[in-house]
Specification:
Blueprint lengths: L3 H14 L6 H19 L9 E3 L2 E3 L1 H7 L20 H14 L4 H8 L5 H8 L8 E2 L2 H12 L10
Antiparallel strand pairs: 1-2, 1-3
Helix pairs in contact: 1-2, 2-4, 2-7
């Protein structure tokens, strides 16, 4: 498992490198997708921190705090974090998330996370939320959802 800021910086740096900087909203959705795919492929969460159900979708609170100053502007510099080398499977997951989400508008990504019976939807409704309540999104539910939605499972070499 990794500190969420490290994974966030991976996407921020990739966006800068590819001349396609991400916004804070998009970054939060990318973290959610990365954690979900990693859970589906490895049976283990990618992130040390919980993903929470906020009003506008899944959020990692620690990353929110570190990047909130960017508002809706593209993020053009990472936040300080340690240097950790992810394994090949983790890099493959991060690469797949980048490829899947890079050209999708953050609002569309948020709408996808809000689909009925999604992990965000389930956590938000179960907690009785109408605005931000920071309800934790269950990793087992996330794993099941991503396994079924993307057709991936633990032990798979790549996404099908």
């Amino acid at each position: 498992m990794f500190d969420a800021i490290y994974i966030a910086n991976y996407f921020v740096n990739l966006g800068i490198l590819k001349d396609a900087p991400v916004t804070h909203m998009k970054l939060q959705k990318m973290l959610y997708f990365a954690n979900g795919l990693h859970l589906a492929l490895t049976d283990n969460p990618l992130l040390k921190e919980e993903v929470e159900a906020w009003q506008y979708g899944p959020v990692v609170s620690s990353v929110y705090q570190r990047f909130k100053e960017w508002g809706s502007r593209p993020i053009t510099s990472p936040q300080p974090s340690g240097n950790i080398e992810p394994d090949k499977q983790t890099l493959d997951v991060l690469g797949a998330v980048w490829d899947i989400t890079k050209d999708i508008d953050p609002i569309k990504l948020a709408n996808w996370t809000h689909l009925e019976n999604s992990p965000w939807y389930t956590a938000f409704k179960k907690a009785g939320c109408t605005t931000n309540c920071n309800a934790p999104i269950d990793n087992e539910l996330t794993k099941k959802y991503f396994t079924e939605t993307f057709g991936v499972h633990a032990g798979a070499e790549t996404m099908s």
